[in-house]
Amino acid sequence: MVSETHNDSAIHTTAKDLLSYNDTTLSESDSTDNSLEFPKYTRYAVVASCFVFQVLSCGLQISWGVQQEYLAANVYKGEPGKIKMLSYIGTLMYFGIYFWGMLAGWLAEVWSYRKLCFVGIVIMALGQLLASFCKEPWQLCLTEGVIFGLGTGLVFSPTTTASARWFTQRRGLATGIAVSGVGIGGLIIAPLTEFLLRRTGVEWSLRISAIYIMVLGSIACYFVRVPFQDKTRTLRNFDWRAFGDRRFAANAGIVFFVAAAYITPYAFLPEFWVSKGMSSQTASVLIAVANVSSSVSRLIIGFSADYIGVLNALVLNLLGASLSCLVLWPFATGVGMGVVTSIFYGFSTGGYWALAPLVAAKLCGVDRLASVSGVISTVAAVGVWMGSPVADAMLGEPHHSSYFVAVSTYTGGLWLAAFFLALFSRTLYSKKVLSKV
């Protein structure tokens, strides 16, 4: 059985040599599926457990809007200051996924994937449990925003990358299945959250969510593992010189712009549709359509990347996301175009999340995948605070439908910037249009 651990000389090479070395290694391993050396049921269990973690972490984050709407309409009705503070909770959750990525990636590699995920699950459940006793929005910011956000940040990076370490030929498909849990989580947990809020109230809905997070997460923890783990590595082993490589820097820039752009349409498209005369129920259905499309694309794009190349698929997805905001969004004033926009945006952006860990693996190899992805995720945390807040400022007070053109153009521009960086990164590998990269 071949070890994935680099020797000491490989660790201390320059960033450029390191990246070139890993490209060669990966291209040679693509001819045979080395993952066949591992028990297939172990590999499948890892993918399934990562899927569950994505459902619990990102599914609850996506479903926050349901709880926010209930709190604004029933608990804090007539208190605009408190209602406005609720909007920060979702941003803190989203920020936590990325901000703690560097810490999570390092701890996963130098400590244990399984133990780190268990700690993350405990913190997630604790955040929900403590939130059930809160009475003020600022308290919810600390519990659901900061504490729950920390928990999701600890499990997101390891469970996004663990399945990729078990596969070579089907790495894209395995990663796509794992990260499809984000969209599936939104589809399952959002209606469950609304049901619990209506039947049990805010307090018990949070306590029940803490229970199923702890139970399902603990079971999934048992199966999270990687084929090999170098226990001699420490936090000091990370090669910061990788940032000097143009491909690594371009990928960090891509993630920055994607993080800024991704959540904005989900946050503002419903308000745009309502301003055009649709009901809030229709707008929520259209967002659900985008989530379904996103889940499907993670499987299809992950699968197709194994055949057309990771960077080729990345370029096409980012171009699709740009067009959906610049070309489709401004004209999605009716239900028909709304459905088209939802499907197109969900599909193109969902595929990106299946490709992100594959791009990191192509850059720096699978044995350092968690730490490299974690560093890039922390860069993306800065982008989170640039997306929706800037879009909200563009709309002004009161929000007027004519200003949504500026928001769609702004969001499309962020996706377009990511597209050009991806195109630049691809040309660094090959300038041949039809080559598999």
From TrEMBL:
Top-level taxonomy: Eukaryota, Fungi, Fungi incertae sedis, Zoopagomycota, Kickxellomycotina
Protein name: Uncharacterized protein
Domain of life: Eukaryota
